[in-house]
Amino acid sequence: MVTERRLPQWLKVKMPGSDGYRRIKGLLDDAQLNTVCAEAQCPNIGECWDRGTATFMILGDICTRACAYCAVDTGKPEGIDLLEPIRVADTVERMGLRYAVITSVDRTICRMAGRSSSRRPSAKSATGCRTPRSRCSSPISRAAVTLLKK
Q: What is the pLDDT of residues 122-146, one digit of tens each?
């Protein structure tokens, strides 16, 4: 006798496509921003974006590390977009977030390590940054510091 196996409800993932998901996707696409959610192919993207949350990923969408567990593209990073922090702050406000999480790809060109904090983009939101902190004076490190101070 073959019985049908039912998965627990908490293990089931809904396909993205709700109104909330489409709203967040539209905001992120319009602002040309990356998220860990999309770049790492997170299976919970539909649930999180439906609730109006996202983890912003700054400094591009190409990582210099090749972690076996991560789906973020690996390779040589492109240039840094110095207007990105402005777009992130504007999007955080448009999303109406009370708290925003910002992370970044790894750029091992300058032996970056550690965590840095950032000021909030508006009086109504807090920001938690988990980004590499550079120990060299290349244009990449100066741009990263600029991104964190915005």
A: 545 555 555 555 443 344 444 544 5
Q: How many residues does the chain have?
A: 150
What does the alpha-carbon distance between residue 40 and residue 125 come to, in Å, rounded to a whole number?
25
pTM of the model: 0.68
Sequence-distant (6+) residues with CB within 8 A of 29 are none
Q: Centre a 10 Å sphere on the Cβ of residue 64 and count the other Cβ atoms it contains.
A: 15
Mutual angle of helices 84-95 and 19-31, in 10-degree steps: 160
What's the pLDDT tens digit per position in 50-74? 888 889 998 889 988 888 888 999 9
**Per-residue tokens: 134:** 């550079």
